[in-house]
Amino acid sequence: MRRIEGIDLEEITVTDLPLPINGERTVRDSKTPYLGIRLRSSGSRTWIMYTQTNGQSKRITLGDATSIPLEIARSMLGAASLSKPLDQGRSAPLRSAESVAEVVAAYLVSGSDGKRWKASTGRLMETVARLHILPTFGDTPIRDVKRTDVLQWHGELSQRSSSARMALSTLSGAMTYAEDHGLRQHGSNPCQGLRKRSKSHRGSHLPPRSMRSLWQALDHYQPAMPDICDAVRLLILTGARKNEILHLRWDFIEGPRAVLPDSKTGPRTIWLNAPARALIASRQSRLEGRFVFPGRDGTAPLGV
After folding, report:
1. Which of the four pLDDT bands, split at 50, 70 and 90, describes residue 4?
2. What angle is formed at CA 269 by the lines to CA 265 and CA 271, rounded to 5 degrees?
């Protein structure tokens, strides 16, 4: 049974809201009409918006309440009307009242279905928007943001944060979104052509001596932590990403390769050398379930 209650969400932390034992319950923001958090016994906490269409009540999902802060969720209420594309019948003349915060929120909502970017990318975009975009541009009307403003902001941000590249991409996407919805003149994106700071390589290759020491350490800890040690070995042997190894499933293994239907960069094939194939075979002979590295209950991948 669904229960609805209202509290001032500024006074609490979302993760402190108790989950129902069964089903779901909804907590409304007492200071913002139509905004609420849906709490489910499964552990999810989700921002929702209440609307009415032709007299019928409807709830629209806005996003994960643990990663989207309250101020962004409140902006999404004003932005939700922007998320309907022009080709679905919305007429959108230029309106200077639309702030950067509202447009950024609408832009993030537009990609929350997972078709434009991955959920992990969306969470990163939400974070850089909250930390780096909204403090500078949040209240500024979207049509008033000039290239000189963006140049100064990005130049200063690049000196103090490694997130400058993602922040610029997110702001640029929001500006293009505003153009598509008639909130800026076409071709006026102030981020267009700005050079994004190249990603720096934050790792290095281990020299042979260090690699031998690492392998000896894995041998030492193998009896106590066999799954973790095997996962590290497979990372070394394949050069794959951590989550690609931890989320590896038996049905992805096809002879000398692992075919990943969905990785950070899309579908990908990881070639398995002889030691990697031997390690996987040894695990397959003693494990059941879908995952090469199963979690404690066997129904989900190992979490590290």
Report:
1. low
2. 135
User: What is the distance between the alpha carbons of residues 131 and 167, in angstroms, rounded to a whole number?
Assistant: 9
CA distance 167 to 165: 5
Angle between helices 70-79 and 100-110 (to 10 degrees): 90
Is the pLDDT at 80 greater than 60? The verdict is no
Task: Give the residues across from 7 on adjacent strands.
Answer: 29
Q: Does residue 90 come out as left (phi exceeding 0), alpha (psi in the -120 to 50 range) or beta? A: beta
- pLDDT tens digit sequence for 163-174: 899 999 999 999
State the residue for tokens 């790792």: 203
Q: What is the spatial distance between Cα 211 and Cα 219, in angstroms, rounded to a whole number?
A: 12
Report the distance separating Cα 162 and Cα 277, nearest Å: 37
CATH of domain 1-80: 3.30.160.390
The per-residue pLDDT for 52 is: 62
Q: Is 2 helix (H, G, I), strand (E, B) or coil?
A: coil
Topology match between the domains 1-80 and 100-181: no
Nearest to 69 by CA among 39, 40, 45: 45
Q: What is the pLDDT of residue 108?
A: 85
Express each pLDDT in 28-74 by its tens digit: 888 877 788 999 988 888 888 877 656 667 777 777 788 777 877 77
What is the model's pLDDT at position 60? 76
- In sequence order, what E strands does the chain have? 4-7, 24-29, 35-40, 45-53, 56-64, 253-254, 257-263, 266-271
DSSP state of 62: E
CATH 1.10.150.130 holds for 100-181? yes
Place of tokens 């639309």: 98
- Structure tokens given for 186: 């076409």
Burial tier of 189 (Cβ tally within 10 Å: 0-12, 13-18, 19+): buried
Segment 156-181 shows an average pLDDT of: 91
pTM (predicted TM-score)? 0.50
Domain definitions of the chain by residue range: 1-80, 100-181, 208-285
